[in-house]
User: Fold these one by one.
Assistant:
Number 1:
Amino acid sequence: MPNDAYNETCAAIANALWNHRLFLLHGDAKYLDVLERILYNGFLAGVSMSGDRFFYPNPLVCDGRKPFNQGTLGRAPWFRTACCPVNVVRFVPSIPGFLYAVDDDGISVNLFSESEARVPLHGQRIRLSQRTDYPWSGRIRVTVDPQQPTTFQLKVRIPGWARGRPVPSDLCRYAKAEQTGWTVTLNDQPVEQSLQKGFIVLNRRWRSGDTVELNLPMPVRRVLAHDAVKADAGRVALERGPLVYCFEAVDNGGDVADLVVPDDATFQCERRADLSGGVTVIRVAATRVVRNDDGTLTNRPVEAVAIPYYAWAHRTVGPMAVWMPRRPE
């Protein structure tokens, strides 16, 4: 699993659709964790902010020279074999259908997005509204408006990243595995933190205006790969909420190959409204390895900037990396 692996956009879409179907079959939120991770990272990187240029592959490292994208370096408007662009076109309109699911017991809230929906259940339509700035903020307010009071289960997903697991396997892990201190309230009253397959289950007679609020803190998390992933031995990646971050040369003095993110690095988050439609960047107390005239190396403190992986290659195409050395190499 080298960091310059192909990681095709079509494969990301297929994996998202597969995990959505596995969730519908088994009702386990771990499949939605994978779906969400793909949506915000592996898939979203494959299409430009303008929606008219595409990556076929989505590598986790770029040297700024190799034309990895079917002979081009940046996103391209079309390809000789154009499966990725048309897959994007069919996939994006399907995303609203992932937010909720219905079964005989009730409704599950699968993903979080500023939205309104009318969900058929027990012979009526339940209006659900979400108010949130997710994925930049972990505060989500879900308001339930049935046409008349009715009893059903409302299952609300608590993402794996909020519970100390970046993925539902041992492929990678957080350097510190503690949970983020998430909370749920129902009409301003705390809800017991007992999960069933990754969901808080609220079984009650719902009335118009009932409100569920989630608070999912989003600290910057250090991610380590499984020891068997040799390409990432001694390296670290950064995440915040569901977003994977990367270091891009345009923010870091023209290169990233000489940057080190040590284990004691500190982080500061900053909202940048001017960047890629508005993103939260991470300012990192990092180290730059400098080669002196006599051939010796010097480690110099530097403030590095990490941006969401999906936002790379929108300003210029140059060196980029997700997995960074923890010590000078």
Note: Helices lie at 9-26, 29-43, 83-91.
Number 2:
Amino acid sequence: MRTSSGSAEGRQREVSASLSDRVSRWLGGKARQHWVDYAYMTAFIILVLIAALAAERFFTPRNISNLFRQIVTNGLISLGMLVVILTGGIDLSVGSIVALSGILFAGLTDEISLVPAMLVGLVAAALAGVVNGLVIARFKLQPFIVTLATMVAVRGLVYVYSQIPQVPDDPEAFRAFLGAAFVGQVPVPAIIMLLCFPVVWLFLNRTTGGRAIVAIGGNEEAVRLAGIGVGRHILLAYTISGFFAGLAGVILASRLGIAQPSVGEGYELDAIAACVIGGTSMSGGVGGPAGTFGGVLTLGL
């Protein structure tokens, strides 16, 4: 009886230990995943606390307003970069596209007025994205190589168009159009950026095209076998990236009151960093605007 009882107790301890180990591993895995998912928010909170302790006026409306004005450019570029990375790709041409849209906007303002000049800049930026998407989807080339070539080509076009900064005849009106406009104490560029993030979230989570873009990054072959057009969704992703880079370029030129041919160099690295800090997987299929916004804020501090 003692042997039987001892054996039963031993088995019970083994089962309990096994269950305990499994629970511990599960909790450990969940904790690690939780940390990965919210690492950007943890880093952001730490940075905010450090900044608040270092500067007494950190939380003043003026300082917060300036912070959001500074992150608008990277915020918009990062949104487009997010969409591309979700497909498993990358867009190194966004910095050059920023320069292209800005230089066209500033250079054409005196000839065709502000709104048409802005539209020309945005269309040119979107077309650069279309070129990226078409070449990648049609010829199955690596996004890194294609967008690197586009980066060089577009930068060359910018310098061909203008080797000197473009300054409109009325720089104050140019700045007041977008860059220096406010609604109360909130900068209009910040409002535009903050509206774009939920729009992209809705696109990725509530539309067929957005879900297909995310699915392509997860398993492109499965998406193709499901009868979904992979090529056209890759084209869409790079067009969106080009558009947001163009929007960033237009707003940046308006904020500065001048368009520099050299502007935008290295911006692609900041955008990629914001996406990665926000939990976006460089292999595609994982990520979202909320995390990217956290990454942008973290870099902005």
Note: Residues 2-37 form the longest helix (36 residues).
